[in-house]
Amino acid sequence: MHFTLKQLRYFDAALRTGSIARAAIEMNISQSSITAAIDSMEQHVGTELFRRIPAKGLVPTDTGQRVGRLVSAFLEQARVFESDLMSLSGAPAGTLSLACYAPSAPHVLPPVLRQLAREYPSIRIDLKEGDMQTINELLSAGSVDLALTYRRNTPEKMPFIPLFRARPWVLLPESSPLAHEDSVALEDLAEMPMILLDLATTERYFSEIFSSRGLRPNVVHRTKSSSVLRGLVAAEFGYSLLNICGPNDRSGQNGYVVRPLRGDVPAPRFGVACTQAAQRSAMVQAVLNIMTELANKGGFDHLLIGETTESTTE
Q: What share of the chain is helix, strand, coil (3-state, %, to 5)?
């Protein structure tokens, strides 16, 4: 073989990011190393794998896409092999590539990583964040072993272990008349200005919450940042809906309050998705067991507001 495992990883990063510069940042390596990996692959295959297009970056050729699928599958198998080899002498060890839905990451990851560090200090975590579309692409390409995400947007054939139901709740300015209520009805919110978390698939989901009652939300602002969203609510630009409640959200010192929604509303399952190949890894199984045990012991209960029932939708 005329290229190394590192070069395959550099090629994969360039294909996924569509940019030599972004691939270099992701892999923490020089741009020249990414370029050299691409050149080596093209020389070995004997044809152009990328077109360098100004303002568009790297665009894979048809052959480049086919090579990319082969490389992704090989890297997935290599991660399993590496972790199993390192685990032969004792506890599971190796590097686990873990993706997490970005708005949930600051709240869901800490209890998982703390427990993992206590039980398996030899497992190193390579974290990736993104919206649900990005996470699905990473999973489908075999670029990550596991992903903490919602079931409703995970491919049906992808193995998925539910950890909890994330019932939506309301974020209100402290000055809102509804802030004095113990819970809030969707009918009370429909005409009020809403600040929408505008990520892939979220608008459809939040619209479905209202349409289930024959209502439509009055969206006046959109943001892709959950931190900006909280700031806009505190500044009295409107209310918002979220599914996971951070520790600081209940403090009462942020200019906003949190309240549960009344009635039956769609409460999607949040859990961990994985690839078929990753499931065969002893390291991945160890991490899955930790997440499941944590959920069974109520390790995520502090992130939830309101009751959930099995009748709610995925």
A: 45, 20, 35
Residue 309 has pLDDT above 50, yes or no: no
Q: What are the phi and psi torsion angles at 20 (to 5°)? A: -65, -40
Q: Which DSSP state fits 181?
A: S
Question: What pTM does this model have?
Answer: 0.74
- Domain, as residue range, for 12: 5-69
Bridge partners, 57 (sequence order): 53
Asked if residue 286 and residue 137 are part of one domain, the reply reads: yes
Measured over the CA atoms of residue 20, residue 23, residue 25 and residue 27, the dihedral's sign is negative
Question: Cα separation of 206 and 209, whole Å?
Answer: 5
In a domain, 41, yes or no: yes
Structure-block tokens of residue 151? 């079931």
Cα–Cα distance measured from residue 226 to residue 27, given in angstroms and rounded to the nearest whole number: 26
User: Is 306 contained in some domain?
Assistant: no
pLDDT at 91 over 80: no
Q: Same structural domain for residues 128 and 188?
A: no
